[in-house]
Amino acid sequence: MESHKLQEQVELIREVFEYIHRFQGKTLVIKIDGSIMEQPSLPLLVKDLVLLYRQGIRIVLVPGATQRIDEILTRYGIKWDRVEGVRISSPEAIPFIKMAAFDVSNRLMTQLAANGVDGVIGNWVKARSLGVRKGVDYQHTGAVEKIDSDIVRKLLAEALIPIFPNIGWNAAGTPYNINSNELAAALSSSLAAEKLFFISDHRGVIGGQYVLPEGILLSEEGLVTHLSVAEAQKLLEGNPAGDPMLDLVRLACRACQEGVSRVHIVNGEIEGVVLKEIFSSVGCGTMVYANEHENVRPMQRADIPEALRLMRPFIEKEALVERREEDLAARLGDFVVYEVDGLIHACGALHPSTEQRAEVAAVAVDETYAGFGVGRRIVSFLIERARALGLRQLYVLTTQTADWFVQFGFREGGVGDLPEERRRQYNRQRNSRVLLLDLEAVS
Fold first, then answer.
1. Confidence grade of residue 8 (pLDDT, cut at 50, 70, 90)
2. Tell me, what's the pLDDT at 9?
3. What is the pLDDT of residues 314-340, one digit of tens each?
4. Which of 146, 171, 216, 258 is the Cys-Cys partner for 126 at CB 3.0 to 4.6 Å?
5. Average pLDDT over residues 293-309
């Protein structure tokens, strides 16, 4: 096996172990859309969830039943209407809706049993009627009023996997059809879950389908990979209501505001999607997060080995100059790192010079984050730091990335434009190009 392939596998194994340790004992609420419940990929998805369960991660399941409800109501000749995407559940329909809801829940319990894990279905949700809205009587369609989270926590402590049908009951025992997405969001908040997953047959938020807030980065496939709650709210404000994907974003915002760390919207047709989303810092869907998922911060001494690891591929292809541990330690205060979930994925430095000038240097990004705008964030941060320090000009010496720096407003310069001390250090053999950024000229 080629050494670089082996190294990639080693890095992947390290990352997986790091994440397993972080999530042991934490609760994940998993909403599986009805479209995925009908797919042949369901057994593989459940197998992955069981794998997480066996690593000490607590799992709560909410199966969607829309397709099954449609099928059963049609089979028995019961008509129904939807208003603004909400099903009106008549007294005639509700017994069959219950049948469908418990049927899909039993499917999940059967899949768990096939993997040697015990699931349990219960009536832990108190619900209330939606009532009459804008003149429309929603009859037996309801909303979550309360979840008996104490019982659910006991079940989780006993190593059981609770399964929640999309049915709730009022104090008199009247059943209501409740939205399974709303139920999953309420559950995640009630249980103080670490993560909430919406698993459907959609990848997440596709950039080209919506008006995006300024500064949102897209993957190479055009996917919005992550949104802060503030960014997600701007997305909702800038687009018409009623879009199913944006409804998930709305619920994700609410869950995050109520204490859930992260909400993931992913495509269940992708094999291993939950594992990829949890055990990779990049993921493969759209994530909405409450706390800072990613941040640029000052480098600490403990970060130096990781920073040198990031720089190594660029040094080998002569895009960066050689640096040793003592070099970084001597100028530690100049460096920043880009951290995701406690892991370092990029670094850069701002080295002050004379005459209110500074050098942008040592910008390196992990290959797994290439194309996600991470390098741009590092350089933008350094530019803002320079402004805050009252500097008038930045310069960069580069052999291979001149075009990339132009996007920040850097212009072609020459060795004679460098501060005198840096000019004396210039390596004529390396023959780096000099680029300049006049901070006063950048808005």
1. low
2. 67
3. 999 999 999 999 999 999 999 999 987
4. 146
5. 88
Q: Other C-beta atoms within 10 Å of 90: how many?
A: 18
Task: Quickly list H helices, 24-175.
Answer: 34-37, 42-54, 66-75, 94-114, 149-157
For residue 340, the surrounding DSSP H or E stretch is strand 335-340
CATH class of 295-441: alpha beta
Residue owning tokens 């040198």: 308
Q: How far apart are CA 35 and CA 51, in angstroms?
A: 23
How far is Cα 147 from Cα 127, in angstroms, rounded to an integer? 9
d(CA 17, CA 26): 15
Strands 343-352 and 357-365: antiparallel
- Please name the helix (run of DSSP H) or strand (run of DSSP E) that holds residue 73, with its range, or none: helix 66-75
Q: How confident is the model at residue 21 (pLDDT cuts 50, 70, 90)?
A: confident
For residues 81 and 57, the answer to whether their CB atoms sit within 8 Å is no
Q: Does residue 292 register a pLDDT over 50?
A: no
Average pLDDT over residues 358-371: 89
**CA distance readout (Å), 337 to 302, 304, 320, 387, 390:** 12, 10, 16, 19, 22
User: In this structure, what are the phi and psi dihedrals at residue 213, rounded to the nearest 5 degrees?
Assistant: -60, 155
Residue ranges of domains in the chain: 3-291, 295-441
H or E element, residue 45:
helix 42-54
For Cα atoms 140, 143, 148, give the angle at the middle one, nearest 5 degrees: 115
Contact between residue 125 and residue 147 where contact means Cβ atoms under 8 Å apart = yes
For residues 271 and 41, the answer to whether their CB atoms sit within 8 Å is yes
Integer Cα distance of 26 and 195 in angstroms: 9
Q: What is the pLDDT of residue 264?
A: 97
User: How many Å apart are CA 384 and CA 224, to the nearest integer?
Assistant: 25
User: Residue 121: CB partners within 8 Å, gap ≥ 6?
Assistant: 102, 105, 106, 109, 162, 163, 164, 165
